Amino acid sequence: MRFLVTGCAGFIGFHLTLRLLKKKHNVYGLDSLNNYYSLKLKKKRLKILLSYKNFFFKKVNLVDYTESKKIISIIRPDVVYHLAAQPGVLYSYKNPLSYRSNNIAATKNLLKIIKKIKIAKLIFTSSSSVYGDHKNHPITENFKLKPKNYYAKTKVVCENLIRRSGIPYVIFRIFTAYGSLGRPDMLFSIMLRRIYKNLDINLYNHGNYLRDFTYIDDVTDILVKAYKKNIERKTINICSSNPVKIKDLCSIMMKILNKKFKINLLKKRKGEMIKTYGSNKELSKIFKKNKFRPINLGISNLINNFTSLERKIKI
Ligand SMILES: NC(=O)c1ccc[n+]([C@@H]2O[C@H](COP(=O)([O-])OP(=O)(O)OC[C@H]3O[C@@H](n4cnc5c(N)ncnc54)[C@H](O)[C@@H]3O)[C@@H](O)[C@H]2O)c1
Fold first, then answer.
1. Nearest Cα to 81, choosing from 72, 93, 91?
2. Which of 153, 174, 272, 276 to mutate to test the pocket of ligand 1 (most atoms within 8 A of CB)?
3. Count of CB atoms within 10 A of residue 270's CB?
4. What is the per-residue pLDDT across 132-181, written as a single tens digit (0 to 9) for each?
5. Distance, CA 8 to ligand 1 centroid (Å)?
6. Could you give the dihedral angle defined by the CA atoms of residues 196, 34, 161 and 149, in that order, rounded to the nearest 10 degrees?
7. What's the 7 CA to ligand 1 centre distance in angstroms?
8. Helix axes of 246-257 and 187-196: crossing angle, nearest 10 degrees
9. What is the gyration radius of the CA atoms in the chain, in angstroms?
10. Which of 285, 41, 35, 24 is nearest to 184 (CA)?
11. Which long-range contacts (CB under 8 A, 24 or more apart) does 65-71 make?
């Protein structure tokens, strides 16, 4: 079985690839190594992956159809995990073009290429942000999609492109993944960097955002199982279904670090969802997964593994 992981130097792509490599699979990783955030962090992840003999890496931008086709046609993967994307909600207001290229155009190119080589399964990582704000919770997969920002809109477009492609697929809608060597633009990383520098923590929406944080190992656990499960043409939430208020998260961090830090409560920011709280009933039914890492254990792990490189990153 040959696996292709796009976005293998990214946060989730790295953890997924590592898991596949540890299971002795041959994994072909592609990544454009863009500079949305610290290239040093992406290279650090890549160095770990390259220490495995069963890992093969190629730097390629999926927006470049000719180059991508050349490489993927040689790899001839059986299973494709498509994780390469431009993530981030706030940045989608600053640089929408990056989302149009790296999410929509890149996915179109990939679909065109893999349609020709006939793969067994395409596994795509969509986002909880496609749902937007809803009154009722937890959010199940059949809820109306009300994307609030351009990032979420591009994810909806990608989902639809995949559904129409005729390629056997599973789409996962991930609810805020966190874990070691995480994305520096995400809450945990920003908070830890500021705490270690003795700076104040800014909490938007007065700390009342609720997030359904999902530990990275729980995410990759499902992604790895998905290729051999007899499921296709499915869209499934990946979430712990246990939302936490951001201000409560600060209390958890203070306790673990045994350190007090100053918090500034600020107003809500454009495009951000008030509450993410997904249902994982479908996930539990299909994958027989009922246990998810509790947030306090997940955070302690994150803190214990926070590297000196991550402390220094500016974003
Ligand atoms: N992290 C989360 O909580 C979360 C939640 C929901 C969905 N997702 C989705 O999961 C996927 C992975 O997210 P992540 O947090 O690991 O992000 P990431 O930014 O860490 O990883 C994405 C990787 O894709 C690469 N990339 C971007 N455009 C590319 C292109 N055109 N060609 C080749 N490579 C390209 C980047 O260099 C990066 O290494 C994304 O599709 C994201 O939208 C993430």
1. 72
2. 174
3. 9
4. 999 999 999 999 999 999 999 999 999 999 999 999 999 999 999 999 99
5. 9
6. 40
7. 6
8. 40
9. 19
10. 41
11. 65/109, 65/112, 65/113, 68/30, 68/109, 68/110, 68/113, 69/109, 69/113, 71/30
Residue 83 CA to ligand 1 centre (angstroms): 5
* Residues shown for the chain: 315
Kindly report the protein residue whose alpha carbon is nearest to atom 38 of ligand 1.
10
Instruction: Indicate whether residue 83 lines ligand 1 (CB < 6 A).
Output: yes
Amino acid at 156: V
- From ligand 1's centre to the CA of 275, what distance in Å? 22
Residue type, 86: Q
Residue 167 makes CB contacts below 8 A (sequence gap 6+) with: 111, 114, 115, 119, 122
Asked if residues 187 and 304 have their Cβ atoms less than 8 Å apart, the reply is no
Testing ligand 1's pocket by substitution, the residue of 18, 63, 83 carrying the most ligand atoms inside 8 A of its CB is 83
Neighbours of 228 (CB within 10 A): 11
In the chain, alpha helices (H): 11-22, 39-50, 65-75, 91-94, 96-99, 106-117, 150-164, 187-196, 216-226, 246-257, 281-287, 295-304, 308-312
Residue 151 among the catalytic residues: yes
CA–CA separation, 60 and 115 (whole Å):
19
Cβ–ligand 1 contact at 13 (below 6 Å): yes
State the amino acid at position 209 in one-letter form. Y
Instruction: Choose the catalytic residue: 151, 169, 215, 277.
Output: 151
This prediction's pTM: 0.98
Segment 81-107, tens digit of pLDDT? 999 999 999 999 999 999 999 999 999
